[in-house]
Design a protein that fits this description.
transcription (chains A, B); homodimer; alpha+beta; WH-like_DNA-bd_sf (chains A, B); two-stranded antiparallel ribbon; DNA-binding; about 140 residues; transcription regulation (chains A, B); Arc Repressor Mutant, subunit A; DNA-binding transcriptional regulator, HxlR family (chains A, B); WH_DNA-bd_sf (chains A, B); 6 strands
DNA sequence: AAGCGGGGTTCCCTTACGGAACCTCGGGTG
DNA sequence: CACCCGAGGTTCCGTAAGGGAACCCCGCTT
């Protein structure tokens, strides 16, 4: 399908994949740790990790002389985390309830608690759903 | 799970749901049109639409004296589109290949083609995966 | 009265998931 | 040397979710 959203979903749209990325981002990088943290079945975790490695989102790195491995974000995977931050922001706003957000994000540049705010790469003004027109691009073929 | 990403996935994490939202955002709002556009089974489309309406992401509005309905984004759903734009941006960068992006986004405020650029709500500087520390928040349970 | 078209339901079949057990490969321990 | 351990999977089976096609309902239109 000539749609970048659909293509992105082919990479990380399967059940559990975003949560696996979140774990790796948060420092939970080993098979058993991810499995215990998420409560996912080992079979599905194997499938998801293999797929994410094949897609170049994660890389599998040994951390011991024995055959022991950790999963790390590649550059491609690191950019996916922006999507996770937007998801987290939406969940904080609409689903967190009285308790407030479970995680806070402290921005290195300013040292303050903030959240992601989508802006136009061209002019820097806010870029929300109603702020754009969709036009066919070169790959619309 | 005390995780806003997981909570968000409970709302739009099922297969097809993001693509349904994309269709509605792009103006494909009716059952048969969405079904034809995505090639999804009617049964699953019914389930997904009902779930999205229950979650307050879509609303079901009559458009005729006969029992005919359109699905529209609520405010809650409209904010989810920011996530879709980030997904599209990632797909454009990493998966579009030679052909280039299938869709271009023209920003109303500046009239130019742009893409979403996540910035810190506090200081306005870029806010990417490596630019934040994660801290437990009030809802960390 | 017959037909149509939107918006679903129902049925059946196949695929995917969860759970638990099993396997493997190095490295310690007695 | 024999044994056990623990990380990282793989295999097997039963249940749950998805796809396809057919069917249904209801309010027009002719």
């Amino acid at each position: 399908m000539a749609c970048s959203i659909a293509r992105t979903l082919d990479v990380i749209g399967e059940p559990w994949s975003p949560l696996i990325l979140r774990d790796v981002w948060a420092g939970v990088r080993r098979f058993d740790h991810i499995q215990a943290d998420l409560g996912i079945s080992r079979k599905v975790l194997t499938e998801r990790l293999n797929h994410l490695v094949e897609q170049g989102v994660l890389e599998r790195l040994p951390y011991d002389a024995r055959p022991r491995y950790e999963y790390h974000l590649t550059a491609k995977g690191t950019e996916l985390v922006e999507m996770l931050m937007v998801m987290a922001r939406w969940g904080d706003r609409w689903l967190a309830g009285e308790a407030g957000p479970p995680i806070l994000y402290r921005h290195h540049a300013c040292g303050q608690i903030g959240h992601v705010d989508p802006r136009c790469s061209h002019c820097g003004e806010p870029m929300h759903a109603g702020d754009v027109d969709l036009l066919p691009g070169p790959g619309s073929g």
